[in-house]
């Protein structure tokens, strides 16, 4: 095992803290169950040899005492039911320990897995935005569910099975050795053969299982994409193509499983043959020895029972060894997430007044690529004013806002962003984000009621507060038209809001947050020009003390701003009021002319 795997399993082991007593209890119950299992053949052997027949007792003194209390050999011969009752008592002990073992391992497993799930979710919440952008949602979900499930299966089933098998083999060999060396050695030869056979075969099979899993994933993706993109499928008449694509993947999936069925057939069949051979060898050799009086009939029965008892667990031991690699991979995938560094906060982070001027000074920024997205950008936003940013697609407008609320941190030597003279890298992230309200171009609403979606930012808000916010966002009338009004559920199982309605509900949500800085990142794009103007008018009246940052492609949205910044390929191309910019021959004037002419045509 390499150091990395060791570390992963160590991390997983650390989450069993608090539940280890249950693991120990389950192990103890397993030992009792195994011992009880071995005792039954011993009782039968004793009954056959020393009660029904006359073979001398080979028992320890407490048991001898017990026999004399029961009337010795004769007494027991007359009352054979006592032996049967003893076997039943052992069976009761075995089932009780089975019960305790199952409950304890369930508690240990569920407790540990619950801790891992909570830890993962909590950690994911604290990982930087850049990590979320880089990693696919499907992959994160799979690691948090399927991989955790593999670990769950390992702790609940495989771990206890491994322990039980080791106990079974060790105790059976320890009991068989003193009885007959030759027969025990014969069993001993088969032990590694059975384990090796099933681990190698299962190792090969598990690779095929993986291919079948991937084929299932492809089938799932085809269905999911089809359902998500149903509008595109219908609009372009792609149903036939989609059906063909699905059938092809479906066929591949079922073919793989048929092939796997054959291979599983070989696996189980040959496995049965190998273990059957083991039991048969003992039966033949045991019969020979019993006939020649080397062992008693009772001992012969014990050997056959013990060999049959360990045959199946030995096979599953091999299978578990084969599956262990799957557990290691899952543990590694989970630990990869857990070892990602969380967003850190310096202890001296501050919470300054946010109703102050915002200043970008020589800001240069690049994402992972080598080309800067922002290049030496400097500007100042006066507190309480409306500041607008105009720029073509990909010019870096959203990046400016990503940096403002520290979704990405500006590296030390790449300029600075300050609020009231305080560098934002020194401001507490949570405080900063709570004071900068953001409405995005494609807002996200949860599958809850409209009211719950809005009050998410302020749980103490009253329905009057909500109505005030929706009235400023000009969405109150639309909401009241729904039969359930503010209690209307939105999302997959509820009402579908139009793009513009969604944008306006998220504007209302942001307004309720009552932040000194408000950012509208292209968030009026799906609203008609008239409503856009009304919303801005209402905002101006109601939020006159707040600093408003408007990002838009639409000149009419921006033209009344106090200052307009024109961004071109990550650089400041121009800055000024609408009247100033319209006087200069620049991008702003060009865009203005194009948009105004288009409006005329309309
Ligand atoms: N998370 C990211 N990782 C890497 N590159 C990114 C990331 N986000 C944006 N970019 C790149 O940075 C550049 C600027 O993107 P940005 O979203 O800031 O532009 P924008 O002006 O807001 O564009 P639009 O008007 O189309 O929304 C683009 O080239 C984009 O591909």
Automatic annotation (TrEMBL):
<dbReference type="GO" id="GO:0015421">
    <property type="term" value="F:ABC-type oligopeptide transporter activity"/>
</dbReference>
<feature type="transmembrane region" description="Helical">
    <location>
        <begin position="185"/>
        <end position="205"/>
    </location>
</feature>
<keyword id="KW-0812">Transmembrane</keyword>
<keyword id="KW-0813">Transport</keyword>
<dbReference type="InterPro" id="IPR039421">
    <property type="entry name" value="Type_1_exporter"/>
</dbReference>
<feature type="transmembrane region" description="Helical">
    <location>
        <begin position="266"/>
        <end position="288"/>
    </location>
</feature>
<dbReference type="Pfam" id="PF00005">
    <property type="entry name" value="ABC_tran"/>
</dbReference>
<dbReference type="Pfam" id="PF00664">
    <property type="entry name" value="ABC_membrane"/>
</dbReference>
<keyword id="KW-1133">Transmembrane helix</keyword>
<feature type="domain" description="ABC transporter">
    <location>
        <begin position="358"/>
        <end position="594"/>
    </location>
</feature>
<keyword id="KW-0472">Membrane</keyword>
<dbReference type="InterPro" id="IPR027417">
    <property type="entry name" value="P-loop_NTPase"/>
</dbReference>
<feature type="transmembrane region" description="Helical">
    <location>
        <begin position="294"/>
        <end position="314"/>
    </location>
</feature>
<feature type="domain" description="ABC transmembrane type-1">
    <location>
        <begin position="24"/>
        <end position="326"/>
    </location>
</feature>
<dbReference type="GO" id="GO:0005524">
    <property type="term" value="F:ATP binding"/>
</dbReference>
<keyword id="KW-1003">Cell membrane</keyword>
<feature type="transmembrane region" description="Helical">
    <location>
        <begin position="79"/>
        <end position="100"/>
    </location>
</feature>
<dbReference type="GO" id="GO:0005886">
    <property type="term" value="C:plasma membrane"/>
</dbReference>
<dbReference type="InterPro" id="IPR011527">
    <property type="entry name" value="ABC1_TM_dom"/>
</dbReference>
<dbReference type="InterPro" id="IPR003593">
    <property type="entry name" value="AAA+_ATPase"/>
</dbReference>
<keyword id="KW-0547">Nucleotide-binding</keyword>
<dbReference type="GO" id="GO:0016887">
    <property type="term" value="F:ATP hydrolysis activity"/>
</dbReference>
<dbReference type="InterPro" id="IPR017871">
    <property type="entry name" value="ABC_transporter-like_CS"/>
</dbReference>
<dbReference type="InterPro" id="IPR003439">
    <property type="entry name" value="ABC_transporter-like_ATP-bd"/>
</dbReference>
<protein>
    <submittedName>
        <fullName>ATP-binding cassette subfamily B protein</fullName>
    </submittedName>
</protein>
<dbReference type="InterPro" id="IPR036640">
    <property type="entry name" value="ABC1_TM_sf"/>
</dbReference>
<keyword id="KW-0067">ATP-binding</keyword>
